[in-house]
């Protein structure tokens, strides 16, 4: 006889609806493998009259979310409303009532994670959030569990499907940014207001969550330097392509130093990055996500899959629900690895190799003058090519890795140099 675990669901939109359908479909398989029957007993929705395609029992529906949390028959609370409030208060109330919580809410975790982790720990119950970073891809659990003892140095990835779809369209089909964005909106990847995706906020929140778990320190969304893809041009894409790179919006979390107590400096950033075509992340195209992890003993690992959408996200939520149900039955829980507030290294101090595209006069001595400015800021040139443009010349440099402030200093000086007509392109290049 299977043991029944009762679920209270906060939100029944795209992810919640998929979760209801998935629990229905997978119930007997879950019973078979775990001995637990999942039953949804209460569902909070914004509009009770809205038609839904998922198999939802109308008797379970309420528009009062607090009823879900307070219902004594609810064993586990699942939050898929999104946003900070009322999700934060509802989750804190559920934890205080001793109920494990499963959430997909990246914005909330990236801003209030420490408060929630502490509340879960105080109550001695699970707080699971696999779906909050990279959708269906198991990355939170590997970082929390399988790699808990690893000395991780870098976790980086493509964690926003909308921007990866747009960049892939621009690169593989020659689309303009505007056309690719319009196509992403038509297909439902991008919102009508695409700011959160295209300006890197969404990826930044996911980077904060992953960095915090990977490095055992508190990282919030505000710690993440972010630039989006809206300023990229077809010319940037085609130069990168010709040089053997793909441009990806990468979220990069790095640990500097070997302290194991969360006191090493951490750099967390999101920006368009030229990824060498022989790197596994370069071949992640369309709306797919991938996360690349580097550990001292494990070496390199890559996790690939769908980072968004109802069913992929619900798949990650359901995995957490089953995990929480099993832990609940065994009377245990898994603490979220957390530590002190992270010491964040600012973007100025973070290192990258750089791509620089400079439009110049085609006159004797110009190349050495421009190279002199670059070298004068401590940047070492790895490769360079020159093209005539008719009215002048274009110099394209790839540098060795150096601190961001060195490159910004060189750009500022180049802009004031009389033979320089303009800096037409600048991108970070992924290095070792
Ligand atoms: N909008 C996100 C993406 C999914 O495009 O990947 C939700 O985080």
What does this structure look like?
- It is a single chain.
- The chain is 36% helix and 27% strand.
- The protein has helices at 14-34, 65-70, 87-96, 106-123, 140-146, 161-173, 177-186, 195-198, 201-215, 234-242, 310-330, 366-376, 404-415; strands at residues 3-10, 36-44, 61-62, 76-79, 101-103, 127-128, 152-158, 225-226, 245-256, 265-276, 288-295, 299-306, 343-344, 351-360, 381-388, 393-399, 402-403, 420-429.
- The chain contains 13 helices and 18 strands.
- The model has no long low-confidence stretch (mean pLDDT 95).
- 47% of the residues are buried.
- The chain has three domains: 3-135 and 311-330, NAD(P)-binding Rossmann-like Domain (Rossmann fold), CATH 3.40.50; 146-305, Dihydrodipicolinate Reductase, domain 2, CATH 3.30.360; 347-429, ACT domain (Alpha-Beta Plaits), CATH 3.30.70.
- The chain has 432 residues and is of the alpha/beta class.
- The structure holds L-homoserine.
Mean pLDDT: 95
Question: Regarding quaternary structure, how should these chains be classified?
Answer: single chain
Spatial gap, N to C terminus? 54 Å
- The fraction of residues assigned to DSSP E strands is 25-35%
Radius of gyration: 24 Å
Q: What is the 3D shape? A: elongated
